Amino acid sequence: MTTPPAGVRTLLRLEGLAVLIAALLAYAQLGAGWGAFALLFLLPDLSLLGFLAGPRVGAAAYNAAHSYLGPVALLAAAALGEWPVALAVGLIWCAHIGFDRLLGFGLHGTSGFGATHLGRIGRADPW
Fold it and tell me: How far apart are CA 37 and CA 87, in angstroms?
């Protein structure tokens, strides 16, 4: 994956911050418990286990759990069906993705864990 220009990386990180703040404010208005938020916040990171099966499976699993498609679909279904638990889970999921983007963790390519759409993460390969 090619690294985007610094200005684009900054913009994507700021978008992550905006999503994180919006999700936190909406979650606070929902009145759901913060204990549930803490328990579920890191749940999408279980998708990292996919990398144990190789970079292609790992990237697919991680990207599925760290794309906004899933949580936005869940939020839409929750709003239409008036399902407050699904709404809370969707907001937590969005907050997690926003937090990851803020920290510079992007979607992964199949060339290895360190290659993301926001640039390289982790230590450089010494070989």
Answer: 12
3-state SS string for the chain: CCCCCHHHHHHHHHHHHHHHHHHHHHHHHHCCCHHHHHHHCCHHHHHHHHHHHCHHHHHHHHHHHCCCHHHHHHHHHHHHHCCHHHHHHHHHHHHHHHHHHHHCCCCECCCCCCEECCEECCCCCCC
Residues 6+ apart with CB under 8 A from 39: none
* Gyration radius (Cα) of the chain, Å: 15
Which structure tokens are listed for 48? 């990292």
Task: Look up tokens 């208005």; give the residue.
Answer: 29
- Does position 117 have pLDDT exceeding 80, yes or no? no
The pLDDT mean for the chain works out to 87
End-to-end CA distance of the chain: 18
Cα-flanking dihedrals φ and ψ of residue 117, to 5°? Answer: -70, -10
pTM for the predicted model, two decimal places: 0.86
Q: What is the pLDDT of residue 121?
A: 55
